[in-house]
Amino acid sequence: MSKKYVYLFSEGNADMRELLGGKGANLAEMTNIGLPVPQGFTITTEACTRYYEDGKQLAPDILDEIMRYVAKLEKMTGKKFGDVTNPLLVSVRSGARASMPGMMDTILNLGLNDAVAESLVKATNNPRFVYDAYRRFIQMFSDVVMELPRDKFEEYLTMMKEDRGVQLDSQLGAEDLKELVGTFKGYYKDRMGVEFPTDPVEQMVASIKAVFRSWDNPRANVYRRMNDIPYSWGTAVNVQCMVFGNMGDDSGTGVAFTRDPATGEKKLYGEFLMNAQGEDVVAGIRTPQTIDQLKDTNKEAYEEFVKISTALENHYKDMQDMEFTIERGKLYMLQTRNGKRTPQAGIKIAVALVKEGLCTKEEALLKIEPRSLDALLHPGFDKKALAAAKPVASGLPASPGAACGAVYFTAEDAAAHAKDGPVLLVRAETSPEDINGMRVSQGILTARGGRTSHAAVVARGMGTCCVAGCGALYIDEAKKQMTVNGNIVKEGDFISIDGVTGNVYLGRIPTVEAEVGGEFATVMKWADEFRALGVRTNADTPHDAATAVKFGAEGIGLTRTEHMFFNADRIPAMREMIVATTTEQRKKALAKLLPMQRGDFEGIFRAMKGKPVTIRLLDPPLHEFLPKEDDDIRALAEDMGLTFDNLKATIQQLSEVNPMMGMRGCRLPIVYPEIGEMQTQAIIEAAINVSKETGELITPEIMVPLVGSGGEIRFVKKLITTVADGLIAKSGLPMKYLVGTMIELPRAAVSADRIAVEAEFFSFGTNDLTQMSYGLSRDDAGKFLPTYLDKKIFESDPFEKFDVLGTGRLVEMAVKLGRETRPDLHLGICGEHGGDPSSVEFFHKAGLDYVSCSPYRVPIARLAAAQAAIKFPRTK
């Protein structure tokens, strides 16, 4: 039996999301539960995959199946493609498995040509509607399918409005729009060398290909990488009978949410426009009305929509984002999906759904995107400073939060300057092409658009502050400046925007730390009930440790001791130790460093209040602490009483061809045991001092880095135990400690059984393990990784999302071998992957005991660990 690539809406259901995409599955579900959905069919995600496998061609068997379903649609509706008496017009829309608002393409009013347009004029007696639909179709088809510049069509439209002395598209008459159709077709012929296609089948096939092609467009690729959506999924295509919101004042279109996507408040939230098509609402070209005003325009349609909204939220057990059209007074549902929401709203909605009995705690936790929590943890505006500040303008609060940054007026400029400091993207309105600039911006400010505009929806999904529809802005891209109520703001000037109030301020407003409590604390409590993985933090200072504890860290999984030596008051002693030529000289320098290290460890132990602390011995290449320029070397030589020539020769001796694979990690205490002895002394003495001070025994975990063999860990462990045991015996405290290692070399992973003979715990250093397994330098890979991603050689950056299929096998092997030798072996991960949700899921499945990440990612890891445990319960 041949594979089926096309399904009528009536043939699918909500469980077929992988095959039909989110939009297709939901259209099928709405059809099946009896909602007013225009008829149509879905071309599956497998057809998209096949399209790319076949060299971006629609295979003849898929094309034949599509045409059979066109015939079924014609029979169901009584209309025919291209027929001048009763023509069938359709929309062609994308529909990926995961929601990707605005990232892919849509074509409306497909099936129009001159003859069909004339027949529709006679049938409807509404020439304005017909030629409005026709000019939209030509513009969309030319832009999406033929990739002609959309701006040129907008230019022709603007010129006509200026010539006719009107401001809005809806103020143009039928003859104006008919003339515009001719202008658009003439431009098409000039650019393409052929007439605009008149055959509806040709139009549809080209449009389906274009939607499949849009799965691979730059903005979709960026969005997928940001949201962990695999390229292999592909997109479905939905072909649906057109219903028209632009047939007159009794017709309209809108977008609405069952709850406020910005705050989570339980009320219908949305916007609509009469005598318009869907693109008008999201594009921000006209100012829409709020959804509650629909009851004054069409009470019957409003009441039906309210009833449907409630039914859909109860059916899907989540906030819904819905699109609708009213044609000649009759309501039609075009889409429903789980709505994108701000992080604040996501938390509030999850808790509310549980309280309302719509879902369980487990289901509620799975509805929250872990990465979105990041936006809740960072500073907002200082209330006192905010009270003293005077807004220069205001717009619609489209995505909450506070943002301050240098102003840039194009996505390209924002992306180019983001490395120099915080930036704000300011646009008349954003489009999907702006995704790169939006991604790096602290906030987004637009002159036009509502709270369901592109800028608002995408900003909310990214957890980025956004103020939309600030009509006081006049942007002059050519001069790279804007005017706000008489104030000129130039590129690079700072402004501040408030996504809660919609206010815009000139200059900088200071920020304050976020407070963690209320519904956020409730969700974190639920997460802790379900997760099997512990969550620790990577912290090198008492401040970082305290911040992480506030966010729920259960210990420290990595303290990098080398970070403590770069301070100006410490680096001289460190340099003295490095350039020492005898053991005595080195010990003299280390004696200066000992109290500094001990004091640091005491501060961290106090901040953690008895929670476990893993301290990594000195790891980086020694040359990193030494000057490189002659003037700096000369100054250091004078400070240390050395000659310039001798010091320079010593520095050159210490330089390495590949320092990341040279004299670092466990190799330092093996070659210079006194370094390891000093660090062990500092750790144990600090633990003894704080244990005596608090009355609570501390059990420090000493981690030996870059071990690749059993012999290395055996040598360094003996050095550690000799020092530690002597100090503990002298203290009289019954204190214990652990000695373990970092698994960051492939050889360590494959010989983990021998290393575990000595190591009492493993902590996977996934940054270096990724570097070593790929043979990539994380610092240098940025030069070519973007090309790898663009060419689909890599689906994601392995330094951001853990490589499960490659490096992950080394982790799995080390877990298995290590626990075969030592069943009670404690296993964790301390690379930055510890705060990446998809990576956390893998570490849960691999059987690790904890993940460790930076302080602000602790809540993300807690939620991701809970979601992993809910989806993949561990067997006891």
Summarize the structure.
The chain is 46% helix and 16% strand. It is α/β, with parallel strands linked by helices and 876 residues long. The two termini are 43 Å apart.
Q: What's the number of extended β-strand segments?
A: 31
Distance N to C terminus: 43 Å
Structural class: alpha/beta
The gross shape turns out to be elongated
Provide a count of the helices.
35
Helix content: 40-55%
Q: What Rg is obtained from the alpha carbons, in whole angstroms? A: 32 Å
User: β content, as a range?
Assistant: 15-25%
Main beta sheet: strand number and arrangement?
8 strands, mixed
Mean pLDDT: 90
Low-pLDDT stretches are none
Strand order of the largest sheet: 12-22-21-14-15-16-17-13
Q: How do the strands and helices of this protein lay out in sequence?
A:
Blueprint (H helix, E strand, L loop, with lengths): L5 E3 L8 H16 L7 E4 L1 H9 L6 H18 L12 E7 L9 E5 L3 H11 L2 H19 L4 H15 L9 H19 L7 H15 L3 H10 L7 E7 L10 E6 L11 E6 L3 H6 L5 E2 L3 H4 L1 H18 L3 E8 L2 E9 L4 H13 L5 H6 L7 H4 L2 E2 L1 H6 L4 E2 L1 E4 L2 E7 L2 H7 L5 E5 L7 H6 L2 E4 L7 H9 L2 E4 L4 E4 L4 E4 L2 E4 L3 E5 L4 E4 L4 E2 L5 H13 L3 E5 L3 H9 L5 E5 L10 H9 L3 H26 L4 E4 L13 H11 L3 H11 L12 H5 L1 H22 L6 E4 L5 H22 L6 E6 L2 H5 L1 H4 L5 E4 L1 H9 L10 H6 L16 H15 L4 E4 L7 H9 L4 E4 L4 H14 L5
Parallel strand pairs: 14-15, 15-16, 16-17, 24-25, 24-31, 25-26, 26-27, 27-28, 28-29, 29-30, 30-31
Antiparallel strand pairs: 1-2, 2-5, 3-4, 3-5, 6-7, 6-9, 7-8, 9-10, 11-23, 12-22, 13-17, 14-21, 18-19, 19-20, 21-22
Helix pairs in contact: 4-5, 5-7, 6-7, 13-20, 20-35, 21-23, 22-23, 23-27, 27-28, 34-35
